[in-house]
Amino acid sequence: MQEPLDPSAREHLQPLLHDVILCVTAPAFTASPRDGQLTGARVDGFYDHDRRLLHTLRLLVDGREPEPIGVQPLGPDRVKFTAVHRYTRDGTDDPSVIVERTRTAGGEELLTVRNTGTQTRRLGLSLTAATDLVAVADVKRGYRGPAVPCTAGPLSLSWVSGEQHARVEVVSGPEPEVSAGREEGTLAWRAVVLPGNSGWAVRLTVTGGTDTAPLGHPVAPRTPAPWAEPTVRGDVRLVELVRRGLQDLDALRLADPLRADTGGPEDQFVAAGCPWYLTLFGRDSIWAARMMLPLGTGLARGTLWALARRQGTEHHLFREEAPGRILHELRPADAEHGHGLRLPSRYYGSVDATPLFVTLLVDAWNWGMPDADVDALLPAAERAMDWVRQSCRRDEHGLLRYHSRSGGLRHQSWKDSADAVRDAEGRHVSPPLAVCEVQGYAYEAAVGLAGLLEHRGRHGQAAELRDWAGSLRKRFAELFWIQAASGPASRYPAVAVGEKGQPVTGAASNMGHLLSTGIIDAAGSKDVAAWLAAPGLSSGWGLRSRSAEVPGFNPFSYHGGAVWTHDTAIAVHGLCSTGHRREALVLAEGLLDASMHFDHRMPELYGGETREPASPPPLPYPATCRPQGWSAASGVALLTALLGLRPDAARRVLTIDPAHPAPLLVEGLVLAGHTLDVEVTAAGEGKCSGLPAGWRVENG
């Protein structure tokens, strides 16, 4: 059995990620410092299926570390580290021995040494390797397990601890001398002769895992991505944001091994993010699939099926499971996550994934998902809607509210950190809470499902859902609006309503999610738009999660002031869909400008500091995931919003209502299986070609 973790590590903190080089091919990834030397510190290592296979891989040349000179990402899944090895007697500062390490997320490393000089070099090389084989949840909370004893074999080093195992093997190149100690092993080449202008290389693989893999845990996909790759011409910031986002989404793809029909397409979905959330997350995977619908319904179908197969069927306190409830997250095993948080491998503790599941199916239907898939998934959506309505029925105020259990997530909306909800005085507000955007999700799900059921001839059920949604909309109007003493509008929606019906004061970004749900009327949308575009919430680089004008604001607080990429994109979409173009462009321009400083690879979140004319670029949140699913998909969401695309399957109408202020051409969008080209002219007019038979365009 593996030894228990060092108790002294309990004082450790979550590793920061801002300067970590992450490469991912889900479910595997590597995390490296900028010099490429894995030393066992922080998050260093090769990982697969939420397990660290190797935390140390340290290179020495003639007994000393090469001097790093640069790191070059070669895509989401690989990176090249370049260093030099210099000699004091060369009479020049120019390096002649170049050391390159190309590391791949799939568990491969190519070590190359080049002699660019004219004289022969004789070198001694060694690679020291070690591991603790701990779960990624342990790494996240700052734990480092005891070193696992190493065993030497022909061309390889291996480690075994209980059911966990790992192996480093030389698969091509000169054979090394292999030695193993109690805590580490070494691969050594003691007499490497490099004539002038020559090179030397070895290739290593890192493999391992668990002897008995958990049944149904996501696996690497075998087939290509289930979405089209459009050609975007126009604003270079938007072009690059979409391009880099699609690359990252490709690397984050996973497949559901529980699909029984081996002859059909894989059920693929997007993992939430690397390194901490490289698995199926209900909320995150749903939002990414929603954002990607203009590129085809395949990702939505796969996401819906993966979640439908794991939909709640019984009441279970530890898992927080209930019939109809949609999964929050899926892990290989139960895990301690620090700060008293202990979660099961299959956890249902989110209040928003269930209504969002319903809306994803409705949105996919509107974008042309085949009827056979829609009808097959409809029962799961109805069960999900039943859970929503029953939960509201049990609430005194008829709202969709979350309650926390000991050891589970304290907050269960997308802002789920322990201090995610604060009032205008900066005080923490505890559950049970009915968060504003979740009421919007529930309303949107009910109205959307009613439309789908009516189209299927089920008029009675449709009318019942619309009546219920209307009642929820009325309750929202009565309970959530707060009169503001000052600000850009006279009122704003509360972040949440407490158990006794008291609203939580203080402007926050949550209100941006309400706009496209329909739960607030035109006057309410106008008020929300004013708050979103005003300096308190709009940082100049995107939308702050909490207004800078209230106590408790912190530009580097996870949910208390930092800017979230997806949150900004959702608000832009809502502003565009409700006709508030000026406010939408305030946020969109900030997000696009921020993307240039992140090489268009948007982090999960970044600092919410105020943008000034000469201010420095925004900084990533220190522990941010990058790549992250809904951040990577936000480029497509922004593109859709600025094009003003809204399909209506019942009427077979595609609305185009551009908000983009300059010419824009997008070729390769998908509606009902047909490829579309959409153009915004210099005059701001929207044009479309390639519509499916029977469909027509309406200009908004």
Can you walk me through this structure?
This protein has 700 residues and is α+β, with helices and mostly antiparallel strands. The protein has two domains: 7-210, Distorted Sandwich (Beta-galactosidase, Chain A, domain 5), CATH 2.70.98; 245-574 and 582-643, Glycosyltransferase. The chain is 25% helix and 25% strand. The protein has 13 helices and 36 strands. Strands 7-8-9-10-17-14-13-12 form an eight-stranded antiparallel sheet, with no helix packed on it. The longest helix is centred in the middle third of the chain and has 24 residues, at 371-394. The protein is globular. The protein starts with 20 loop residues before the first strand and ends with a strand. The model is unreliable at 1-10 (pLDDT under 50).
How many separate domains?
Answer: 2
Figure out the total of helices.
13
The largest sheet is:
8 strands, antiparallel
CATH topology of the largest domain: Glycosyltransferase
Strand content: 25-35%
- The helix/strand class is alpha+beta
- The total of beta strands comes to 36
- Mean pLDDT, all residues: 95
Radius of gyration (CA) equals 26 Å
Short description:
This protein has 700 residues and is α+β, with helices and mostly antiparallel strands. Helices cover 25% and strands 25% of the residues. The strands form eleven sheets. Strands 7-8-9-10-17-14-13-12 form an eight-stranded antiparallel beta sheet, with no helix packed on it. A five-stranded antiparallel beta sheet has the order 3-6-11-16-15, with no helix packed on it.
